[in-house]
Amino acid sequence: MDSHKTNMMSQPPAYIAPMAPPPQQLQHFQPTTQQIILEQPTVLGPDPVGITCPNCRSRVVTLVDDMTTMKTHSFAVLLAVLGCFCGCCCIPYCTKSCLAQKHTCPVCRSMIGIYNN
Ligand SMILES: [Zn+2]
């Protein structure tokens, strides 16, 4: 009885991976499905313009409201200083060129832009 057991710690054979090629740096550019919307910035003028509302994405024609600006007030003050304060200082408030036009969306009522001439 030879009892000298060879203590063959029978290790499981080391799994030798086949020389697989390393995972390639896949440089495939996935076609992105997201659309890049290159919208021409609509130049706002004193008149209503057709525009896609940035807020509600509706294709709308803007509503234009006159609004007073610093320029309006400056003109009024200037006219008042010049002595035309018997009503003339109100002229800037009626003159289109002294007012800014505020474009709003008729659908969601959000302000789209201001035309300041
Ligand atoms: Zn809108």
Task: Give a topology summary.
Blueprint: E1 50-52, E2 59-61, E3 63-68, H1 70-81, H2 91-94, E4 99-104, E5 111-115
Please characterize this protein's 3D structure.
- With about 120 residues, this protein is of the alpha+beta class.
- The chain has a domain at about 50-115.
- The chain is about 15% helix and about 20% strand.
- It contains two helices and five strands, in the order βββααββ.
- The chain has helices at about 70-80, 90-95, and strands at about 50, 60, 65-70, 100-105, 110-115.
- The strands form two sheets. Strands 3-4-5 form a three-stranded antiparallel β-sheet.
- A hairpin with a 6-residue loop joins strand 1 and strand 2 (about 60).
- The chain is rod-shaped, with a radius of gyration of 37 Å.
- It starts with about 50 loop residues before the first strand and ends with a strand.
- The mean pLDDT is about 75.
- Zinc ion binds near residues 53, 55, 58, 108 and 110.
Bound compounds = zinc ion
Give the radius of gyration. Answer: 37 Å
What class would the helix/strand composition place it in?
alpha+beta
Residues in helix, %? 10-25%
Summarize the structure.
It comes from Chironomus riparius. Helix content is 14%, strand content 20%.
Key terms:
117 residues; single chain; 3-stranded antiparallel sheet; transmembrane helix; alpha+beta; binds zinc ion; 2 helices; membrane; LITAF_fam; two-stranded antiparallel ribbon; zinc ion binding; zinc; 14% helix
